């Protein structure tokens, strides 16, 4: 029986409930592979599951849904993958905060040799999220004016870069001057420091009162009303997170006043088939290769110290992406 260490959550709560424990892994079954993890992405969805905002399948569980690793074993009869391949995954199943993991082969995405493992781990979930938000949920085109909340965050940074390359006018909101500088580097034409400026007033000024085609909002409770007010008639509010808490119930009248559209997309529904998954990941890797996307791995922690990462993430002490590197002890 293969043994490895992993972060385990036995009860819901703060970062202190994350424990570094030994787990047992069986051999991969038909249609499965086992990987030795080399880099793990950290995402706010990890916080949601640990706190119980989203329901984990069961307790205890190993958090997160994004990693890169080297294939160490393949299930019987599996073709198309072999020991030694470098693969990434993002989405289901949960359990990437581990030195080794068993995955369905259908979710494994080949990582191009030109892409560093830490880069790939930091960009798979966030990058495919950005692809889905910009190209499928609402198709951003040249001439559109968009707002990205948390523009210096992991997804926000990629949204700004990609939307700028598509020809959109990009407005970003951030909390301080340091993050404003990063957002500008990442393609924001206008940066609003929401701790010092009125977001709605600034958007009206920037758009000459016309409003926005789309708002990408991962913050939730604190930003919902401003997001609605900033939209042009027939605009889209794309809510894809709630880092500040769950928004209050939304009256239909809030949408009716300007014939607005509201959507709450999940990446898993847009990468449900193998073809959709590979298309989305392929777009991400292609845009890294051609320079459209610059991946910012600004914070690295050992996996055994994983509790520090979400604490810093929740405390808004981070920018760009966070990566965990598995400890080498067994």
Write the layout of secondary structure elements.
Layout: E1 2-9, E2 18-25, E3 32-42, H1 44-51, E4 66-74, E5 86-90, E6 100-104, E7 109-110, H2 117-137, E8 145-148, H3 154-165, E9 169-174, H4 177-185, E10 190-193, H5 199-206, E11 212-217, H6 224-230, E12 231-239, H7 252-256, E13 261-263, H8 267-270, H9 274-289, E14 297-302, H10 308-314, E15 321-325
Parallel strand pairs: 8-9, 8-11, 9-10, 11-12, 12-13, 14-15
Antiparallel strand pairs: 1-2, 3-4, 3-6, 3-15, 4-5, 5-7
Helix pairs in contact: 2-3, 2-9, 5-6
Span between N and C termini?
13 Å
Structural category: alpha/beta
Give the helix proportion (percent range).
25-40%
- Tell me the name of the CATH homologous superfamily of the largest domain: Medium-chain alcohol dehydrogenases, catalytic domain
Shape: globular
CATH class category name of the largest domain: Alpha Beta
Radius of gyration: 20 Å
Q: Low-confidence runs (pLDDT<50, min 5 residues)?
A: none
Helical stretch tally: 10
Question: Care to count the β-strands?
Answer: 15
| Mean pLDDT score | 91
The CATH topology of the largest domain corresponds to Quinone Oxidoreductase, Chain A, domain 1
Strand content: 25-35%
Question: Sheet bearing the most strands, described?
Answer: 7 strands, mixed
**Count of distinct structural domains:** 2
Element order: H for helix, E for strand:
EEEHEEEEHEHEHEHEHEHEHHEHE
CATH architecture of the largest domain: Alpha-Beta Complex
Organism: Panicum virgatum (Blackwell switchgrass)
Protein name: Probable quinone oxidoreductase
Subunit structure: Homodimer.
GO molecular function, one term: NADPH binding
